[in-house]
Amino acid sequence: MDLTLIYTIVGFSLAAYSVIANDSVQTLGTFIASNQRFKWYWLATAASTVLAFTLIYGWNVNDGDITFGRLNKIPYQTIQWYHAAAPLILVLLTRGGIPVSTTFLVLSAFASTVVLEKVLMKSVVGYGLAAMVAYLVWIAVSYFINEKFDKVKDSHRSTWVIGQWITTGFLWYTWLSHDVANIAVFLPRQLPLNLLIICIVLLSVLLFYIFWDKGGRIQKVVYSKTGTRYTRSATIIDFVYAIILLYFKQYNDIPMSTTWVFVGLLCGRELAVYRHFKPEEGIKTIGPMLVSDFAKMMVGLALSVVLVYLI
């Protein structure tokens, strides 16, 4: 077997696992946390259905390009061993429960330094904007909804459950429009039908594994945040996150780290929630948690820079 084909298969498989296991916690983490009343395979089936729709829709409207134009600035390259090494590093970090940016680690092996700088700048803006929007939104929400306790009326619970499933589907579609590029970068930019089917099947199998594993170690990042097990809170988080991602999707076709946007969102939300409900504890309580999340992002960025210089 040709070495290039081996590197492609290994790199693609590792990238697929790392993207689903590491980054999907951003979109599916609150869905898993707040829907433990449902069997895991029903949740996985719903996520796989949206996944198949997104890839087929993107493939159909973009002439075989499932990345929605995210790789327009990164042409296809013959896969080498160092391309496959990037997602391998990410898999090791994923197993350690570190939510680093898949975009930086994977695309850094393919992108020029100019493109990588644009990806970094867009991600930094995304982090800041998400934190600011989340802070303002949850300052307002805190005056109407107590997210420290799940006091939804019994007559309203089914409405919030339906709303969360809808918003999660919308968020999952929007997120895939960004991050499927981290997997498809190993493949031709225009996929034939057989490769499209392989992508859908492989990613669906990985989704079922992640739901069976209840999100894996990365899920701890979601559980550590206030109220994420509550359906109402998860619905609001998913909706705000989806709107922010949709804005950046329409802004330009440069890839960005959705991990940075997600961490920024949770950062702004935690600051707002604690400001309203626990002002006496304030930054002393949530400071170490926010610093820890930011430090983990920096680990991914540092490894990406090292990888670029090694290449």
Shape: globular
Query: For the CA atoms, what is the radius of gyration?
Result: 19 Å
What is the number of beta strands?
0
List the helices and strands in order.
HHHHHHHHHHHHH
Number of helices: 13
Uncertain residue ranges? none
**What profile does the largest beta sheet have?**
none
**Percentage of residues in DSSP E strands:** under 5%
Number of domains: 1
Distance between the termini: 25 Å
- Helix/sheet category: mainly alpha
Helix % is over 70%
Whole-number average pLDDT?
A: 79
Please, could you describe this protein's structure?
The protein has 311 residues and is an all-alpha fold. It has one domain. The protein has helices spanning 3-23, 25-34, 40-61, 81-95, 102-107, 113-141, 154-179, 181-184, 193-212, 219-223, 231-251, 258-277, 282-310. Helix 6 (113-141) packs antiparallel against helix 11 (231-251) and helix 12 packs antiparallel against helix 13. It is globular, with a radius of gyration of 19 Å.
Question: TL;DR?
Answer:
This protein is mainly α and 311 residues long. The protein is 73% helix and 0% strand. The mean pLDDT is 79.
List keywords for this structure.
311 residues, single chain, 0% strand, 13 helices, mainly alpha
